[in-house]
From TrEMBL:
Family: Belongs to the FemABX family.
Keyword Cell wall biogenesis/degradation: yes
SUPFAM superfamilies recorded: Acyl-CoA N-acyltransferases (Nat) (SSF55729)
InterPro entries, sorted: Acyl_CoA_acyltransferase, FEMABX, PG_Glycine_Bridge_Synth
UniProt keyword terms in alphabetical order: Acyltransferase, Cell shape, Cell wall biogenesis/degradation, Peptidoglycan synthesis, Transferase
Keyword Transcription: no
Protein name from the UniProt record: Peptidoglycan bridge formation peptidyltransferase VanK-Sc
Length: 377
């Protein structure tokens, strides 16, 4: 059984650098972004003392008590293909319990099901289909089924998804594979041909209108944030403060310079769209986006997405991840527009194993659930 002990951020970075990829939520830099939580890097070591796994743990304190929810977003980074997950999770849980955890929440980075673009489009068009799960998937992964079965056997509790989004990280995401099944990189032309006619037309229109897409520096975060606040007002969500993005820029780029990239799309000097991309090894994510209400006809949002996709291809990434979608395919649901925008890229809907809790102190865990329900998560 591997042993578990705290490791330094440097050891954590070195281990992640030895892997093809890992979630950016499991990087040491993310601990700096989530500075309101106590954090710790953990390492798994085999019998020879070699590092075999790592995790970023965020400790969320219970009000008025010195007890914590130990949260490992999209982690830990261990061998999830193991037939003996208890050997990995048991020493981790024992350590977290010693740290004052009343419960542990993990997010296994394991795919359970996939649906093609065509399947999602057919589901949206079918009035009898309201949820993605009603469509037989293109693939059910044996690895995902094994993880889910083992977690149930070990007493972990799956966190339900309400309205399509989990309380923590999204269980359903939309991704564009950037490699063929044989591992060869897809070309820009191949990815472009996979997009729907509207996406291809909008990318062409942006180029014809003279939309210019460039990488930005830290000094451009203010311009991004102004547009993001405008987007939040238009689309009715609560924006994060500028300081959050400045911290994110500094912390993630300190881990690796290519980890955080700010993109800006301008038309005749006007900022029409701006996005934040994150990359860890072979996995590239579209993280945040903003767009102007004016000049929507120049299609800045499509132009900036295409620039990010091309950059991911150039970097040799295996996947471009557009992050969360809801499970709803109901044409009357306001969330379905987001899915339709992402489906146009020609990728696939992907379901992960979701988030799982292990209560260590049941009365405190129950109190925590009540507390979260009252404050809305």
């Amino acid at each position: 059984m591997p042993s578990v002990r705290p490791i330094s951020p440097t050891e954590h970075r070195e281990f992640l650098a030895s892997l093809p990829s890992a979630s950016f939520l499991q990087t040491p830099g993310w601990a700096q972004v989530k500075s309101e939580w106590r954090s710790e890097s953990l390492g798994w070591f085999d019998d020879d003392g070699a590092r075999a796994g790592a995790a970023l743990v965020l400790y969320r304190k219970l009000p008025r008590l010195n007890r914590y929810l130990a949260y490992l977003p999209e982690g830990p980074v261990i061998d999830w293909g193991s037939d003996d997950l208890a050997a990995w999770l048991t020493p981790m849980v024992a350590h977290l319990k010693r740290q004052g955890a009343f419960a542990v929440r993990i997010g296994p980075p394991v795919v359970t099901r996939r649906w093609s673009t065509a399947q999602v489009k057919e589901g949206i068009a079918d009035p009898d289909v309201r949820l993605l799960g009603q469509i037989p998937p293109a693939e059910r992964t044996p690895a995902g089924a094994r993880v889910v079965a083992q977690l149930h056997e070990l007493g972990w509790r799956h966190q339900g998804v309400e309205g399509g989004f989990a309380a923590g990280q999204p269980q359903f995401v939309f991704q564009i594979p950037l490699r063929h099944p044989d591992g060869a990189q897809r070309t820009e032309d191949e990815v472009l041909k996979g997009m729907n006619q509207l996406w291809r037309r909008n990318i062409k229109k942006a180029a014809k209108e003279g939309v210019e897409v460039v990488r930005g520096g830290r000094e451009d975060l203010k311009a991004f944030h102004d547009l993001y606040v405008h987007t939040a007002e238009r689309d009715h969500f609560t924006p994060r403060p500028l300081r959050y993005f400045e911290t994110m820029y500094d912390a993630l780029r300190a881990d690796a310079p290519e980890r955080f990239t700010l993109w800006l799309a301008r038309h005749d000097g006007d900022l029409v769209a701006s996005t934040i991309a994150i990359r860890v090894g072979e996995h590239a994510w579209y993280s945040y986006g903003a767009s102007s209400t004016e000049k929507r006809e120049v299609r800045g949002s499509n132009a900036v997405q295409w620039a990010m996709i091309r950059d991911a291809i150039d970097a040799g990434a295996a996947v471009y991840d557009l992050r969360g979608i809801t499970e709803t395919l109901d044409a009357d649901d306001p969330h379905v527009g987001l899915i339709q925008f992402k489906v146009g890229t020609g990728g696939e809907a992907v379901e992960h194993a979701g988030e799982w809790d292990l209560p260590l102190n049941r009365p405190l865990y129950k109190a925590f659930e009540v507390y979260l329900a009252r404050r809305g998560g």
